[in-house]
């Protein structure tokens, strides 16, 4: 499932189109102090980032990226600063805090972060069956599932064709061997065991050696 940018009023998500446009996505820092700065920069009331939360590259300045390698990375200590906030989300006013209040707030944030970091089951994104909010995403997922079903059905039909061909070949070989009296006791027993493994649940091929035919006469 595509990753969505966590910034306020940003609709950018990870798709082939955004990749072609050069838009990259970056996870929130694991360090609590840096992650908290990113959360504050977003100005989203009640928002708490998790290990899967990301921001798109539109919210960082060009000189804040390290493009030396094949992977575009953010430089150490970078904080997102490029946003398009509405008037009511203007820059918050600085408030005066005492050392005691700062210490209390840090303790509160630390305890909240510890709760958020409790182990969670590792769920593969490919198996996330919650309905997406976008109809286009839902349609894409449906098309992908339908294509998968068709592919599996095709493989099943091909396997059945190969099985029928193998059975036809074995039957023809047995006929030739019987006609030329080339079936020995050991070969007959081996063919019976082999036929049992292939025709499980069906009657075992009736193979007669020259000795068996003389017995039935």
UniProtKB/TrEMBL annotation:
Keyword field contains Electron transport: no
Record has Repeat as a keyword: no
PROSITE patterns tied to this protein: ZF_THAP (PS50950)
SMART domains according to UniProt: DM3, THAP
Ranges for domain THAP-type: 1-83
Listed Gene3D superfamilies: THAP domain
MF terms in GO: DNA binding; zinc ion binding
SUPFAM superfamilies linked to this entry: Glucocorticoid receptor-like (DNA-binding domain) (SSF57716)
InterPro entries per record: THAP2, THAP_Znf, THAP_Znf_sf
This protein's UniProt keywords: DNA-binding, Metal-binding, Zinc, Zinc-finger
Protein name: THAP-type domain-containing protein
UniProt source species: Amphiprion ocellaris (Clown anemonefish)
């Amino acid at each position: 499932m595509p990753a969505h940018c966590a910034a306020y009023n940003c609709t950018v998500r990870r798709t082939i189109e955004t990749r072609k446009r050069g838009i990259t996505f970056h996870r929130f820092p694991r360090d609590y102090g840096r992650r908290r700065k990113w959360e504050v920069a977003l100005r989203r009331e009640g928002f708490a980032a998790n290990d899967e939360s990301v921001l798109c590259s539109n919210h960082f300045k060009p000189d804040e990226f390290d493009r030396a390698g094949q992977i575009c990375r953010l430089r150490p200590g970078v904080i997102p600063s490029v946003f398009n906030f509405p008037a009511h989300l203007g820059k918050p006013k600085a408030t005066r805090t005492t050392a005691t209040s700062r210490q209390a707030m840090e303790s509160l944030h630390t305890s909240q972060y510890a709760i958020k970091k409790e182990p969670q089951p590792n769920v593969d994104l490919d198996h996330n069956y919650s309905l997406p909010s976008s109809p286009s995403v839902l349609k894409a997922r449906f098309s992908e599932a339908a294509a998968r079903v068709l592919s599996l059905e095709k493989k099943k039909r091909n396997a059945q064709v190969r099985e029928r061909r193998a059975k036809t070949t074995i039957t023809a070989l047995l006929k030739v061997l019987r006609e030329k009296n080339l079936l020995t006791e050991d070969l007959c027993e081996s063919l019976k065991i082999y036929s049992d493994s292939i025709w499980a649940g069906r009657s075992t091929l009736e193979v007669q050696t020259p000795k068996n035919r003389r017995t039935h006469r």
